[in-house]
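User: I'm writing a tutorial on reading structure tokens. Could you give me a worked example: one chain, its sequence, then its tokens, then a sentence or two explaining what the tokens reveal?
Assistant: Sure. Here is the example chain.
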Amino acid sequence: MLLQNNTHAYMHERMNAISHIRKNLLNVTQGAMADIAGVQQATISRWESGELSPSLEQMRRIRCALIERDIRWSDAWFFDVPEAAE
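And here are its predicted structure tokens:
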């Protein structure tokens, strides 16, 4: 049971991180984020709800989109929401 709770906590963090990236860094809709990551909008919704996690390739696409927009980036943000954003 403890492992299951830890997994849920990790996925909740991931949800917050992906939501933070989409809403606060990219400032885009789920549909636009889906275009960036090369997935369907429903996949973004599942990332944000914690049902799924992005692949390394999808994270690379998101990171590239941020860098192309001259947005300061840290790969740690895929896993932890920056304190100032919480």
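What the tokens reveal: The chain has one domain: 2-76. The mean pLDDT is 82.
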